[in-house]
Design a protein that fits this description.
The chain is mainly alpha-helical. The chain has a domain of 76 residues. Helix content is 77%, strand content 0%. It contains six helices and no strands. The radius of gyration is 24 Å and the shape is elongated. It starts with a helix and ends with a helix.
């Protein structure tokens, strides 16, 4: 779902959408952090992997989930986990700021054609629309 929102933002950027994302994203990261570093959830998955009757696909999925917890640092001391959570939130904010800066830069991009030969093969209706848009800017 979040990927769809970001894709929508990249093509329909607005201050309202940016505000919604800026307000919601820290809450989403906090939810991911709580789940992703939950020793209780990890313990349940680990118990299930070792003690529950499952078919091969279920074992594979639960096993991958257990490995993800371990790769993410579930066995680290709590102070290190807390630091990882802080870093996840900070990286998310930085990634969002970078994306906004990139969108702003793309909006302000202007290409000036010095030679009509560069655009000679473009359809006339496209050229007319581009010319009208350039003249109205």
């Amino acid at each position: 779902m979040w990927a769809l929102i970001n894709q929508y933002k990249s093509s329909n950027d607005s201050e309202i959408l940016r505000k919604i994302i800026d307000d919601f994203q820290p809450k989403l990261v906090a939810l991911y952090n709580e789940s992703g570093y939950s020793k209780v959830e990890y313990g349940l998955y680990k118990h299930c992997l070792e003690n529950c009757e499952m078919d091969d696909e279920q074992k594979r999925i639960i096993g991958m989930t257990v490995k993800d917890y371990e790769k993410n640092g579930i066995h680290l001391p709590q102070d290190k986990i807390d630091r990882l959570k802080e870093m996840n939130l900070k990286m998310t904010k930085m990634r969002n700021k970078f994306a906004n800066n990139l969108l702003d830069d793309e909006k302000s991009f202007v290409h000036v054609f010095e030679d009509d030969g560069d655009i000679s093969e473009m359809p006339q209706d496209v050229l007319t629309k581009a010319k009208d848009k350039a003249e109205s800017a």
